[in-house]
Automatic annotation (TrEMBL):
<dbReference type="GO" id="GO:0016616">
    <property type="term" value="F:oxidoreductase activity, acting on the CH-OH group of donors, NAD or NADP as acceptor"/>
</dbReference>
<comment type="similarity">
    <text>Belongs to the short-chain dehydrogenases/reductases (SDR) family.</text>
</comment>
<dbReference type="InterPro" id="IPR020904">
    <property type="entry name" value="Sc_DH/Rdtase_CS"/>
</dbReference>
<dbReference type="InterPro" id="IPR002347">
    <property type="entry name" value="SDR_fam"/>
</dbReference>
<keyword id="KW-0560">Oxidoreductase</keyword>
<dbReference type="InterPro" id="IPR036291">
    <property type="entry name" value="NAD(P)-bd_dom_sf"/>
</dbReference>
<dbReference type="Pfam" id="PF00106">
    <property type="entry name" value="adh_short"/>
</dbReference>
<protein>
    <submittedName>
        <fullName>SDR family oxidoreductase</fullName>
    </submittedName>
</protein>
């Protein structure tokens, strides 16, 4: 419990599926949780659940891409709970405009109207994904890490499987998460003299509302992509949001004081398996 007990924890994207689960876990272990999200309603819903269970939480509207919005959110957090001691950068995601329709390019795709080939990728879609994942990690860190300079603190970024080896179809999201992993290492070094540790979780495949239709059919059976993922995951299942909790707890614990700059796969063995 000590890793969160009476600590002020800020979690961006805390109204989402994975962020929401992490926020509830922290709230149940004595942390004061500020749930920042673009969607205030989603943030409030998670905060309400934590408060109803006897924890301490607030929902705060914030856009991780807008400096002024983050400043305002920071003021709200300090007023309610005091300076930030643990920051979890959970806001992130992909966009269809940064995604190709097919895994492999064929010559005839150049003339096809009904698909997005590599040559159709929209620069705005690609920037959206890079900004949300990379800048959306860097800007909240700029805002909240100030609080940790004298007292020390912990920053947890959320990378992904695709940062180690890119996944087909999602060049922007894979590249942006590789940037998040790289930034995790860079920041760990940069902040090493002021006692701020920086690490990242790299979730494998977690079935969430965003990818459910891609991975499962209406009757619950797996799509081709879903089947491929499970066949490449030695533990033979998708992740459940609560699978992230133990790694979060370990990385935030005070006796993990010598661990900084690591990106931990939580993936059922996906990244260790060559498929043969
Ligand atoms: N679901 C997976 O399988 C998986 C795998 C690897 C990594 N991840 C990463 O985990 C994190 C959480 O993913 P999730 O599946 O819970 O997604 P989610 O869509 O459920 O949650 C993301 C949350 O971020 C919020 N958000 C979006 N843009 C924002 C902005 N500009 N400012 C503030 N908040 C914003 C959304 O409102 C949402 O509540 C993301 O970084 C995602 O890339 C997810």
């Amino acid at each position: 419990m000590a890793e969160f007990s009476n600590k002020t924890v800020v979690i961006t994207g805390g109204g989402g599926v994975l962020g929401g689960e992490l926020a509830k876990y922290i709230g149940g272990r004595g942390g004061r949780v500020a749930i920042l999200d673009l969607k205030k309603e989603s943030a409030d819903k998670v905060a309400d659940a934590i408060n109803a269970a006897g924890g301490k939480a607030i929902g705060v509207e914030a856009n991780v891409l807008e400096v002024e919005s983050l400043k305002k959110a920071h003021e709200e957090v300090v007023k309610a709970f005091g300076p930030c001691e643990i920051l979890i950068n959970g806001a992130g995601g992909n966009h269809p405009k940064g995604t190709t329709s097919k895994e492999f390019f064929s010559r005839e795709d150049l003339d096809a109207q009904d698909l997005i080939s590599f040559f159709d990728l929209d620069p705005e879609g690609v920037s959206f994904v890079f900004n949300l994942n990379f800048l959306g990690t860097l800007l909240p860190t700029k805002e909240f890490a100030r609080d940790m300079i004298d007292s020390g603190g912990v920053i947890i970024n959320i990378s992904s499987m695709n940062a180690f080896t890119p996944l087909t179809k999602i060049p922007a999201y894979s590249g942006a998460k590789a940037a998040v992993s790289n930034f995790t290492q860079w920041l760990a070094v940069h902040f090493s003299k002021v006692n701020i540790r920086v690490n990242a979780l790299a979730p494998g495949f977690f079935l969430t509302e965003q990818n459910r239709a891609l991975l499962t059919n209406k009757d619950g059976s797996l799509t081709n992509r879903g089947n491929t993922i499970i066949s490449q995951t030695p533990l033979g299942r998708f992740g459940k949001p609560e699978d992230l909790n133990s790694t979060l707890s370990w990385l935030c614990a005070e006796d993990s004081a010598f661990i900084t700059g690591v990106v931990v796969p939580i993936d059922g063995g996906f990244s260790a398996y060559s498929g043969v």
